[in-house]
Amino acid sequence: MARLTRAEQQVRTRAAVVRAATEEFAEHGYAGAKIDRIADRAELTRGAVYSNFPGKRALYLAVLTELVDAGRAADTAEPPGDPGAALAAFARVWLERLPLAADSAEQGRLQLRSLTDAADDAVRDTLAQTTRLQALLLGLALESTRPPRARRRRRVKQAELALTLLAGAAHLAEIAPGFGDPFAVVQACAGLAAAEPDDDWDPPHLAYAPEAKAEHGAVVQDQEPAEDLISGRPVRLDEDGVVVVLGTGRLSAAEEAVRATDHDQVTVVVTTRDPDERGRLVRLLLADLIGCLRRVFPPESWAGPRLLLDQDGRFAEALGVPEPGDDTEVAVRVAGGVIVSRAEGRGAGHSAASATVPR
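-> structure tokens emitted (359 positions)
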């Protein structure tokens, strides 16, 4: 039998750790889980666990992400006819994670992707920013379900309300199993489409937004095509359009670039200096939402922004952002494979997307 290469052995070790951790978290929950027991379950040393994951929370997020990826269903084929039908369909898919009465409490927490015990201030900040991005993506999907020639209206507030309702249902399923009627929750979400919340959007104050400055000859570095997380289509950073590099602390700024232009392709690149925790958390939350979206809205019909996760910083570096952090906000306009303008700081996405295209 051929010996495994070092890389193959690392993959095997990591898989064993994740399997053992899944059993441990299901049995003891996040708070009660122990790294020593995970190592024993995997028949590895404690050091082998820490060589793959820096801590218990990073390992927990890896387990939850594996569960999301393993449970991803096939995409839908029929688009919803109106926002009410879309919200009802989205709610039904989202609520499928609710644990059954026969499930144990800890198994239910894994199914719910519960972060109650794993959250600290840093996690809560990333949760808040990522949830804003989730609401934007759901809102844009809802905006696409309108009759021909009908006026397009912003539906992000409706998406925020739907996510609030669904998150509340999930939390109650965790702490009070069996409470509530999922069918009533679906009907309530559908009714949000007729609500008229204050849904105006204001661009960043022009006095504070940075100016998009022209650049000359800054070529986008060669990159292999990446996969758009939403549509699954290939993405090249040297294609014409606006690319916004956002740290995990600035994800709410994605809408500023999207709303600032009606004709440019917008690509949002999410970056972080903490790929093991913040990066995994963002990937978990976005994969969870996008998995639901793709079962309700055909991915090939998605006309919103493209979304890339930049775990190792290579996308940011290709755009001339060599040291991105969690507070990064840099936007560039690309034309003919060349960066023709750039803006940095809060409001950069809006400035780059709304500025006149340099000749």
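The chain has a mean pLDDT of 88.
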